[in-house]
Amino acid sequence: MAIPYEFAYEKPQNLEMAVKLLGKYGKKARLLAGGTDLANQMKQGFRVPGIIIDIKGIHEMEEIKMDGNELHIGSLATFNDLLSSRLIKENVNILHEAAGLVASNGVRNRATMVGNICSAVACMDSATPLMVHEAVIHTLSTRGGNSYRIQDWFVDNRKTAIQDDEIVTHVSIPLPAARYAGAYQKLMRYSGEDLSQANVSVLMLGEKQFSVAFGSVGPIPKRSLKIEHLLNEEGISEGSISRAKNMIDSVIAPITDVRATKEYRMHMSKVMFERALLAARERYNKPRVFFK
Amino acid sequence: MKKISFILNGEKRFIHVEPNEILLDVLRDRMGTKSPKCGCDSGDCGACTVMLNSKTARSCMIFAIETDGQEIVTLEGISKSGLTPLQKIFLEQNVFQCGYCAPGMILSATELLGKNPHPSRYEVQEALAGNLCRCTGYTPIIDAVLELTKKQV
Questions:
Q1: How far is it, in rounded angstroms, from Cα A158 to Cα A6?
Q2: Helix (H) or strand (E) holding A84
């Protein structure tokens, strides 16, 4: 079905041109990468841009590379690019796991990770892995470069802190110097292809150092310093797991919708938190499992 | 209106498109390429699958204008010189009923076997996921793909 209204289309061939166009059109413009969200939103009338700026001509933004001790993921890297990247698999295993659970292969061939966090739909898969890794989002506009810590990025369901004239160029993930391991858990109705009903990421950075985030259980993904504090004090034990699970009641605020009830989301967030925590510990203790 | 060109099933084609035209509609209604079909119109069902630059993609979520200078292959393209071994085994084993999902299934399985000639059952399931079929229960399709990979040892 054609989009039922007219708009303009530009495909800049470099970042400088894209930034200029975006500076000129501001909020009238939407950036187009994989288009798997944008085309749907435009068909539904949820977005009505006056111009779409196709950024796929800016090939430097396809890169996934190491930059010092940071992993750099360009805005055009698709979920299948993440899946086939050894750098991602070996350094940010949580993100690799999450990428494999996004939609279907045909969608992952087009959909980008940066598009995922820019659409910022509450059920997105890439947010909690990036939160536990304290990723940084880098943007460019005619005013210059800017960066956002991931915890400041999400403002509301489908709303981020980005300004109308900014383009995300890449996301950087600082890699811890010491041993670490993480795990991602996603609740969905059937394997193969579904949006998440709830998801959890746990990163273990030491016997008593953890990072925990919950997704799809509130308008924005939620990292819990309270739970991290408990685990950092007590480490992993039956008692600390059970106390941490009880805390989840006051950390997340799931809603009931067509995909799950709030009670089921709450219950399963606790179950998945424990599973992710134990899986992270197993990988932490047996690094080979991490590189399966 | 912009004049674009792309390689469709090996032939260079030119067409004028508006930015709001979706690739699926252009292929079906203006190029006469009828194998991609409209099912859900939101990227979930796989009926509109085409190969864009050798990777499967959902043509209902692609603006036609984006494909300027790109290469598109549809089911018509992969069977230009007769049925492929995959299509033959699908036919022999009668894996489809209504056939609406068939172009997407065939292209998705073709992409998989191109990258991974000896996939596990899980890998076949994962590659075909997102191609919804309301007739067959999927099993005959998955079995046939695996059967073919055994033949080709």
A1: 23
A2: none
Residue ranges, CATH 3.10.20.30, chain B: 2-74
In a domain, A2, yes or no: no
Q: Give counts: helices (H), strands (E), chain B.
A: 6, 5
Single-letter amino acid code for the residue at A86: R
Model-level ipTM above the cut of 0.90: yes
Q: Which amino acid is at A41?
A: Q
Q: How many domains does chain A fold into?
A: 3
Residue B118: phi and psi, rounded to 5, are: -130, 70
The Cα A257–Cα B114 span in angstroms is 40
| Residue finishing a domain among A150, A174, A198 | A174
**pTM of structure:** 0.96
- Check if the beta carbon of residue B72 is closer than 8 Å to that of residue B54: no
**CB of A56 within 8 Å of any CB in chain B?**
yes
| CATH code, B85-151 | 1.10.150.120
pLDDT tens per residue across span B44-87: 999 999 999 999 999 999 999 999 999 999 999 999 999 999 99
- Residues in A closer than 8 angstroms to B43, CB to CB, are 36, 39-40, 103, 106-107
